[in-house]
Every structure is written in structure tokens, then in C-alpha cells.
Amino acid sequence: MLLAIAGSIIAGGAIGLEREYRGRPAGFRTHIMVCLAACLLMLAAARQGQWIFTPFPEGNVVADPTRMAHGVLTGIGFLCAGVIFREGFSIHGLTTAASVWTTSAIGLLFGAGLYGLAIFGTVSVIVVLVLLRIIEGYLAAHTMIDVTVWAEPDTAPDRADLEAIMGSCGLKVARLDYALTTKGMVRRRLALRARQTFDIESLAGALRRETRLTAFEISPRDV
Known about the structure:
This protein has about 220 residues and is an alpha+beta fold.
């Protein structure tokens, strides 16, 4: 049991370090706690015969550790939902949620005594989070940028004006919406497609020069 517990702590910490380095909401300690909790629950389920309780007279206790695994993975799903949030057109935290869910599965493997599979799973997750991110950076030709602008209703630039501003910075508008806020301001959200060499300062400068805008926000997408 001590080997399983130690393995779950190391595995959760290794995965959590990468998320902590990226500044994600679920980092080092969270991944350790998730992996350790899953391991402890599986260890307890696998040793149900040692539980302190009195069964019904002439009754038999039948242990089914797989039910514990199902319960853990379902419960972790609610925790994963807490790190996913939407901002404009983009959704953040999906990779972190997936890493938390996978970490819980690795903890279950340690608790079940499948050390080889648990270690292989830990290494695979780190490869996906670290090495494939590097490869993805070389292969991807475009990135997505979310831009939100605010303006007065009477002077708000229309779609053609916004596309012209973005086009001057080498950006292509992939999606655009329209909203009127409770304070009477027009809010436009734009999903932009840009090259990997995109310069955020040039876009900020172009938006600052647009006198019809009262405020703006630029949010490059990330995982």
C-alpha cells in the first residue's frame, strides 16, 4: 500500500508540475490530491473484507472494486467542470480538466496494483502535455485571437470597418457578434485568425488609433 501511495503522489506531482508551470488553475497540489485520493479509495475498495462493519446474519460481503473506480471517475468529472470556463468565443481549461481526469485514472491504477500501467500512463500524459505542445507550436500555421470592443451606439464601427482594421494588421475575422449592454454601449466580439508570428502590439496600436472605440480587450487563445 505504501508503494501505491508513493507512486500516486509522484505521478500526480509530475503531471501537476507541468500545469503549474503553465499557470493553470489546477496545478501541482491539486493533481497530487486527485491522484492520491483515487489511489486511497481504490486501495480501500480492494480490501473491503477488512472494513469494520457487521454484515447481515448469514450474509456474504462481495467486493467489487470496479464500482469504486466508476464512482471516482464520475465524481472527478464535477471537479473538472470547475476549471473550464468560457470567455467570448473561446473555451479555456479543457486540457487541464482532461489532465485532472486522467490523473485520477492513474491513481486508480496505482490503487489496483497495476504499477506498470500507471507508470506508462504517467509518462504518456507528460509526453502529451510537454513534447506534443512543442511539436504543435512548429506545425500550427495559425492561431486564434479573441477581441472585444466597446463603442457608443451612434458612432460604433460596423462590420466592414472592423474587418478593415483587422485586415490592416494581417488578421482575418472568422466570427463576429453584436450586443447592446445594459449601460447602452455596443459590444462587438471578434474571433480572429492570425499567423503564429502575430504581433499583439500592432493590433493594440490600431485599436487605440480608432477614436470611435471607447474600450477594447485582446485575448490570445490558449489551452
